[in-house]
């Protein structure tokens, strides 16, 4: 198995270290690997390349979460499941041992609220977890109301990469209040390595120190995200993150 990790990741020592650490997560619950749906993998071939890398990293299950966003990414549960089956068949032909499933990353906008109000079926993962994101810059005026509606509909809200929202920088107590209100937090692993920004890294570290992280995800869109994981694993807070009672392994 180690030789396979080395083939996928590159140098043997780095490969063994990264794969050995990430394997404990067992499942990744945030990625954009399904082909041709959003700003992630564009083709089936690129999807397969990402899945192969994830196998090498030690993941046993991938829950892939394409964007669903108003008039921009008009993905539907039916369309997402169709691409899931396409990728499942291709992975099966390769003989790779990994489970593939899907959910979605819902953008908090008026279209999403309308779906809730109309009781449209939404894509979830695990114990009815619903992954959502907001604008990175502007705080939604209806965030608290949206959380209440999500919960009232029977879903468990999971906020994607809370460390990346600049409108929350300097307002860490708002994140604490959201979690107290039942919003679970999903950290992007690469935030620990400083991939997105120093600001995102600082908030990620603070979330880990505060034991506020419930899920860890790759948010993989391309090979560069997976290659950077080596730096994330080497970060001082990665061990602290893995010591938390993360819910990935329950998926």
From TrEMBL:
Keywords of this entry: Hydrolase
EC number: 3.1.3.48
Lineage: superkingdom: Bacteria
Keyword Hydrolase among record annotations: yes
Catalyses which reaction(s): O-phospho-L-tyrosyl-[protein] + H2O = L-tyrosyl-[protein] + phosphate
Family membership noted in the UniProt record: Belongs to the metallo-dependent hydrolases superfamily. CpsB/CapC family.
PANTHER family: TYROSINE-PROTEIN PHOSPHATASE YWQE
Name listed for the protein in its UniProt record: protein-tyrosine-phosphatase
Source organism: Adhaeribacter terreus
Organism lineage: Bacteria, Pseudomonadati, Bacteroidota, Cytophagia, Cytophagales
């Amino acid at each position: 198995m180690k030789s396979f990790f080395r083939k996928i990741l590159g140098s043997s020592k780095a490969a063994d270290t990264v794969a050995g650490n990430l394997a404990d997560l067992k499942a990744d619950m945030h990625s954009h690997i399904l082909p041709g749906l959003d700003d992630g993998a564009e083709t089936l071939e690129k999807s397969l390349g990402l899945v192969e890398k994830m196998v090498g990293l030690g993941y046993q299950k991938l829950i892939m979460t394409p964007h669903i966003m108003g008039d921009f990414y008009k993905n539907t549960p039916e369309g997402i499941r169709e691409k899931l089956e396409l990728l499942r068949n291709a992975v099966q032909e390769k003989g790779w041992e990994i489970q593939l499933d899907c959910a979605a990353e819902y953008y908090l906008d008026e279209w999403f609220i309308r779906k809730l109000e109309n009781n449209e079926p939404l894509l979830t993962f695990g114990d009815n977890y619903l992954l959502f994101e907001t604008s990175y810059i502007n705080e939604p005026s209806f965030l608290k109301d949206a959380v209440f509606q999500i919960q009232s509909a029977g879903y468990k809200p999971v906020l994607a990469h809370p460390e990346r929202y600049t409108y929350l920088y300097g307002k860490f107590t708002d994140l604490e209040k959201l979690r107290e209100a039942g919003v679970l937090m999903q950290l992007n692993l690469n935030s620990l390595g400083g991939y997105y920004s120093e600001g995102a890294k600082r908030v990620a570290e603070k979330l880990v120190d505060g034991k506020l992280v419930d899920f860890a995800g790759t948010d993989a869109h391309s090979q560069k995200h997976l290659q950077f994981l080596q730096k994330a694993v080497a970060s001082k807070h990665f061990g602290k993150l893995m010591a938390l009672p993360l819910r990935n392994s329950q998926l």
